[in-house]
Amino acid sequence: MNFISGLPRSGSTLLAGILRQNPRYHAGMTSPVGSIYMAMETAMSRRNETAVFITEPQRRDMLRGLFSSYYAQLHPQKLVFDTNRAWCTKLPALVQLFPEARFICCVRDIAWIMDSVERLIRRNAFELSGMFGFEAAGTVYTRVNRLAASDGLVGFALDALREAYYSELASKLILVEYSALTQAPADTMRLLYDMLGEAPFEHDFESVEYEAEDFDAALGARGLHTVRRRVEWVDRQTVLPPGLFERFENDMFWRWPDANLRGVSMIQLTR
To answer: What domain of life does the UniProt record list for this protein's source (predicted)?
Structure first.
């Protein structure tokens, strides 16, 4: 068992689409396992008066059993990469449940994440998005502020990543920059396989496919999990107002000089 986490709109679905070309692997968009895991944590907490009868070993067994129960019938004999942005907040437990697991964290310039979400909203101009509570009122400023809040789509993921990056378990992380994955996919995957201790595999970067049309349509965000067939970097001009785009220029903490105190493995373009 391995995990995919990190920031939204940063290549996690693309990475899953590439990994699933390998017949030994299963990977995909955010699965139901994360939300069920957290619901089980709540059910086994002191909030439930009968939780007094649940021992620590039972808690471990039930949480670990969730993964095997969910994936055993769907993808037997495959190495699973389960995706959820919350996994970065669960390292102390998950490392005990799966000592050999690695956590692949996809990252990207925060301003371009905001730009990507806003572009998606504008492409679905006649749909209200569940990312903003299906609210009709709002501006690009209120949307970005909502995303950046500590409980927002981007703010929560950024805080979770920061928590894991500076934790005592940071050596379990592998950060993969979106620019590296899209501009040098072959080199990126070669390095990733090496860091995972896995045998190399020849991927086809001209024919990567992944989509979740029904899920995206229900969220009012068609195209949210659609991956272009060809892996490539697309240069473009931002749709965000200048001041808003520049607001996030210092938020990529993993690029700060001397910030990598725990020896986190990273795959980046040479700058």
So the answer is: Bacteria
Q: How far apart are CA 144 and CA 161, in angstroms?
A: 19
How confident is the prediction for the chain on average, in pLDDT? 92
CATH match for 2-267 among 2.40.30.100, 3.40.50.300, 3.60.40.10, 1.20.1440.20: 3.40.50.300
Share of the chain above pLDDT 90, in %: 73
Q: What is the mean pLDDT of residues 211-228?
A: 72
3-state SS string for the chain: CEEEEECCCCCHHHHHHHHCCCCCEEECCCCCHHHHHHHHHHHCCCCCHHHHHCCHHHHHHHHHHHHHHHHHHHCCCCEEEEECHHHHHCHHHHHHHCCCCCEEEEECCHHHHHHHHHHHHHHCCCCCCHHHCCCCCCCHHHHHHHHHCCCCHHHHHHHHHHHHHCCCCHHHEEEEEHHHHHHCHHHHHHHHHHHHCCCCCCCCCCCCCECCHHHHHHCCCCCCCCECCCCCCCCCCCCCCHHHHHCCCCCCHHHCCCCCCCCCEEECCCC
Residues 6+ apart with CB under 8 A from 232: 182
Q: How far apart are CA 53 and CA 170, in angstroms?
A: 33
For residues 21-43, average pLDDT: 94
Instruction: Tell me which residue of 73, 7, 78, 70 sits closest to 37, measured CA to CA.
Output: 70
